[in-house]
Structures
1.
Amino acid sequence: MLRKQLPSLLPFLLLLIACKQKAGRAPEEVAHDSSLIVITDSSNAGVTDSIAAVTDTLHIDAAKLIGKWIQPVAGLDKEMQGFQLRSNGTARSINMYTLIYEKWALNNDTLLLWSHSEGVKDTAAIVDTTIIRELSDTSLVLFPIKAAEGYTDRYRRRQ
């Protein structure tokens, strides 16, 4: 009777042995799973030092963004391109014929620009998300969140 049960028990025994060996591994042998890393939320942490905390966000007055913002076209310094932000929340492209800006919004120091492409194969709608690094009456410096650290787009106001 044992001979009849042995073939059906063999896979079970092999599985049991394999599981015991895996469970008995040293911690350094187990594959590292980064999805299990716990990141604590420090957004509510109090400042205990006597030095005041400085945030990395600017308070932006949306009214200062209204207008036309241009920059030189790469490789064609005499040609300009950019966008116009209107007070009603709409936007339009300047000298960019395939990129069509539709609307814009401001959230703290983050400028969101909705656009789509025309005349090209991929006409998907896009929302450009940029951090405003500098804003004055004559210049606007943006950091696209998908760009490499240190990269900025610089615009000047066009009258």
2.
Amino acid sequence: MQTLRIDLVSDVACPWCAIGYRRLEQALETLKGEIEVELHWQPFELNRDMPPEGEPILEHLCQKYGKDAATMEQSQREIMAVAEELGLNFRGAVERRANNTFAAHRVLAWAATQNRETPLQLALFDAYFGEAKNPSDPEVLREKAIEAGLDGDTAEAIARSDQYAEEVRAAEQTFMEAGVSAVPGFILDGRYLISGAQPAEVLVDALRQVAQENANC
């Protein structure tokens, strides 16, 4: 059975990243016994220049897309419906604020060294979209690190420092140069980029194609 690497470029503040990961889980369930995946989360910041206090999400999205509040709220409700169909907790999605996520990415980089990055990613998705919490708040990162089986004190200390800053910035640059300009971005086996939260069937077909190409090499 082949093992394929997936680099999943995402942001904790990206609703479609949470949806895309859940669809990837569905794809991997279909491929069980056929293909194994080595998953590596990679950082992307949607709101790199956002001040620490953030902005109300609807106000931020109206400014970003030039739409009125009613239109943006309807769009968010539609995303919430998609997420909830997949079993995701998006109950706080409309109440959340647009936040900078650099501290979250730094703590996630540390979590990767402990082989606990995926549990922490999922806990932070839940914190942000389900509970409308700031994913870069050191206390939130402490709480969610503990939920993910990590040391909360260490997570909080990293969040309050500049640890892993160079690693995160280098990874962001690498994947921007690889062509990732929006998230989620799935890079299969270091060669193929799939952009967006594609349906599980699309991911199944793509992973099978890469596996077949590898088998023919």
3.
Amino acid sequence: MNISTRFAVAIHILTLIDSNKDGKSTSEWIASSVNTNPVVIRRLTGMLSKAGLVEVRPGVAGAKLTRSAADITLLQIYKAVNAVEENSLFAVHEHPNPECPVGKNIAGAIVPVFSQAQKAMEDELQKVTLHQIVHQIPAG
């Protein structure tokens, strides 16, 4: 299983919006770049709006960033679209054999490691801004 593609698509959406400051970033236009249905874009844009990252107005075409791309981190985007639930990037199988010494104790042994790994990933996402992503895209 992968982290939800919502995260990558949300970064794509915000990168497009930032690169199109003078135009109207409609869900149809964004969907053509992402190669998906505009409904998917509207759903994700709604999540980004709820998190305070974009401004959308009902009945008005287009979305805008609520702040500079330099002030939006990948961690904020990741959390906005619920890429994974809190402390659940790595799942532990639910019903190991409680009569087995390994089965009985495996979760206690690996859950702390999984939590540390997720924290390390989130710390890295906090260090990267949307601005850095935007500037890795060649002008075209």
4.
Amino acid sequence: MNSELAVLAASGATTLVSLMVTDSWTHARELVGRYLNRTGAAPDTFEDLQDARTRLLVTDATERERIACEISRRYGDRLRRLAEADAGSDEALRALLTSLQELSAATADTWRTVDNHISGGVQHGPVVQSGTVAGLTFHTHHVRRTDRQ
């Protein structure tokens, strides 16, 4: 196998791992699943891919980069071996990697900066805007105003 294809396999694996932690994972999984089915990969390869994603998602931030590198190396090797085993899979691998890179670029373009302003008077408590809030508790105390008539 030529070195260009080995580089593409490594790059594709890195892109695949980066997509594991995005909302685009479902689409990426479908693309990889089609490639795995085409190359006749072992059925447990797809299950292992899901397990790798779960492992990456539950890993704390301090270990995430190390785990991502490990998964990327493993899948780079798998993609390379699959391409070597099937002489016609070079073009299919190139197409897969191109699709994954396009998906990754599209995912990166969806992030936007949000600038919020609160108006309408004094706020007497926390104000939160978020896409997802989990495990958040506010402890507030109501202060009775005595200056009202």
